[in-house]
Write a structure and sequence with these properties.
The protein is mainly α and 228 residues long. The protein is 64% helix and 6% strand. The protein has a two-stranded antiparallel ribbon with strand order 1-4. Strands 2-3 form a two-stranded antiparallel ribbon. A two-stranded antiparallel ribbon has the order 5-6. Strand 2 and strand 3 form a beta hairpin. Helix 2 crosses helix 3 and helix 3 runs antiparallel to helix 6. The longest helix has 24 residues.
Length: 228
Amino acid sequence: MKFLYLALDLFSLLGPLALSFDKRVAFHKRWKALFPAIFVMILIFIPWDILKTAKGVWGFNPDYILGIYFFNLPLEECLFFICIPYACVFIYECLNSYVKRDVLQAIHRPLLIFLALFLLLLGFTFHSRWYPAFTFPYAAALLLLMLFVFRVPYLSRFFLAYLVTLLPFLLVNGILTGSLLPAPVVWYSSEQILNIRIITIPIEDTIYNLGMLATTVLGYEYFKKRFA
């Protein structure tokens, strides 16, 4: 069981990596934009993760990890920030290649404005709980920047990709948070979350994923233009 978290990381990466050489998507040709984007995201999220772990917002079950640490983070947690964004951006590019119709074009702006304002309200209301107090405003601010400052033309397609990636993300996160296991791989302090869960998954994790993916895609699209 010591290899469980590592196996989940590699399982998440294996399919997208193997399919990265598909002729139509040719995702391997985008690596020079993808990896700098992931690196920028890591510069934000790894220190954030280190801090939250130190504050006891969450922690890791030693029964499911190898015991190799970077500061206070297991190796597997660090790899999570490479494997999951890789898989998510791969899905984003596949949707761009295979779904020609922009299905959320007509509704994404009001939907995202409402979501951002709602997340800001929740973050302010629950400012004493570390997980929503940081996660919700970050995701909200990023959405508003993408809407009104950067005015990114791909925002509706990004949001579609986010919705699609929720299914595999929740599957992996469900196992990490204790679904089908006698104990969770990653535990959360009940005092630092809203205690609203999707089965075993704190609702904050879905917004954490939104912020992580938005950060990565924003950098990815920037580096694609720069290296074009």
